[in-house]
Amino acid sequence: MDVVDRMALSDLVGRYAAAVDRRDAATVAGLFTADAEFVQPPALVRRGGSATTVGGDAIASTVLAATAHLDSTHHAVHQQVLDSTDIDAVGQTYCTAHHIYRAKDGALRDNAVAIRYQDRYRKTDGRWQIARRELVVDFADDRAITVP
C-alpha cells in the first residue's frame, strides 16, 4: 500500500469522526459502500435490534440515532494500523469518543469511551470507502465536566 492510499484511509476515518460530531447523515452514509456492514457490540444494541446494520444510509441512521439524545459528541481519532490485501485494505483505528450529556441535576457529564474500529476498506472508482466496520469498546469513564 502506497503513501497516497495510507493518507486517504487516514482521511476517511477522520471524516467519519467529524461527520458524526456534526450529525451530518449524508456524509456519514457516503463514507460507506452500498453494501457496507456496521457491527456493534451486543451491549450497545437496543432491545429487539440487530448488532449488524447494512448499507450506508442505514448505518448513518443507526449511528446518529444512537447519539441523538446527547448534547454533543467529540471523536478524537488516534493511531491507525493498516494492511492491504489483493482487492481491499484492513485497518484498526483507535478513538476516544466523548459523549456529552446532561445529568438529571442539569450538570454536564462526559461519558468517554475508548473504542477501536476494526475496518475493511474498499476502493471504488478511485475512492476509498468503509466496507465493514466493527466497533469494539475497550473501556469507558464517566465524569463531570465544565464547558466554557
Automatic annotation (TrEMBL):
Segment forming the signal sequence: none
InterPro entries recorded: NTF2-like_dom_sf, SnoaL-like
Domain of life of the native organism: Bacteria
Residues annotated as domain SnoaL-like: 5-133
Protein name per Swiss-Prot or TrEMBL: Nuclear transport factor 2 family protein
Lineage, uppermost ranks: Bacteria, Bacillati, Actinomycetota, Actinomycetes, Mycobacteriales
